[in-house]
Write a structure and sequence with these properties.
- The protein is α/β, with parallel strands linked by helices.
- The protein has 2 domains: about 15-200, Rossmann fold; about 210-280, formyl-coa transferase, domain 3 (2-Layer Sandwich).
- About 45% of the residues lie in helices and about 15% in strands.
- It contains 14 helices and 9 strands.
Length: about 280
């Protein structure tokens, strides 16, 4: 059986995708679809994608083997150049607000009328009826209680979670079409994607005092002599093994804290590897 994570697993080979989506969620989704075998054409505005200026290395990785064209879709002649590309494509990926697409003459009703086999996945910020309100990953996370000021988030949960949902939605639309259904349109909300990532916190699992928020001694952070270790002995057999191997009488925060203070984080990681325990050094 092929490994789904392998580059040899390319079930979308033969399918063509055109994306108008700039910044991060769209290119991340298009890059995943490319990795699954689809042929991807990216339409960028005349001044390019802001991601290329903000993080050139990541932009290049996401656009490897992607055809990039510069068109000003506000100009009628450039808009006409898009039509033959859409006519030859299976899926359109967008990330503009619906009102902006309407102004460009790219509403779903018009697209579906002219290109009846073309599916569309529209990445939006907020779900209807607020789909035309502005927002970004930071505002979505802040609304959900996932930001701890003054620290900025280390992960772009909404953008990357939304990108993965865009991929699964695209595959679903294409599969349905291949099975005889009409080509269809679907929206993917970045705010809703972030909300799904926030569920462990919203349900209390990762809140302070929650099972994965510090209350269980076997799933916690402990100071070593030169840094910290992350201990994830969540299952009973791991917890029991950890207690035995550390030689602690009681499985408490205090007992484990004292034990892990005896060696460096790197030494504990090496020790855990030999004892088949889920413990790693915390990297900065």
């Amino acid at each position: 059986m092929p490994n789904p994570s392998s580059l040899d697993f390319r079930p979308l080979t033969g399918l063509t995708i055109v994306t108008l989506a700039i910044n991060l969620p769209g290119p991340a989704a298009a890059g995943r679809l490319r990795d699954l075998g689809a042929s991807v054409t990216k339409i960028e505005p005349p001044d390019g994608d802001p991601l290329a200026r903000g993080c050139a290395v990541w932009y290049r990785a996401l656009h490897e083997n992607v055809t990039v064209l510069r068109l000003d879709l506000k100009v009628a002649s450039d808009r006409q150049r898009l039509n033959p590309i859409l006519a030859q494509s299976d899926l359109l990926l967008t990330s503009s607000r619906p009102a902006a697409l309407e102004r460009l003459g790219l509403s779903w009703s018009g697209i579906h009328r002219h290109f009846p086999r073309l599916c569309q996945v529209a990445i939006i910020g907020l779900a209807p009826p607020d789909e035309n309100r502005p927002g970004h990953d930071l505002t979505y996370q802040a609304t959900l209680g996932l930001v701890s000021p003054p620290e900025m988030p280390r992960a772009l949960l909404a953008d990357l979670g939304g990108a993965e949902e865009a991929v699964s939605t695209a595959v679903s639309l294409l599969l349905a079409r291949e099975r005889g259904a009409e080509a269809a349109y679907a929206q993917v909300s970045l705010a809703e994607a972030a909300a799904r990532f926030a569920m462990p916190y919203q349900y209390g699992l990762t809140r302070p005092g929650g099972l994965l928020g510090g209350s269980w001694p076997g799933y916690n952070l402990y100071r070593a002599t030169d840094g910290w270790v992350a201990v994830a002995a969540l299952e009973p057999h791991f917890a029991e093994r950890l207690q035995v191997e550390l030689g602690v009488e009681t499985f408490t925060h205090e007992a484990l804290g004292t034990a892990f203070g005896r060696m460096s984080a790197g030494e504990w990681e090496a020790w855990a590897a030999t004892h088949d325990l889920p413990i790693v050094a915390v990297r900065s």
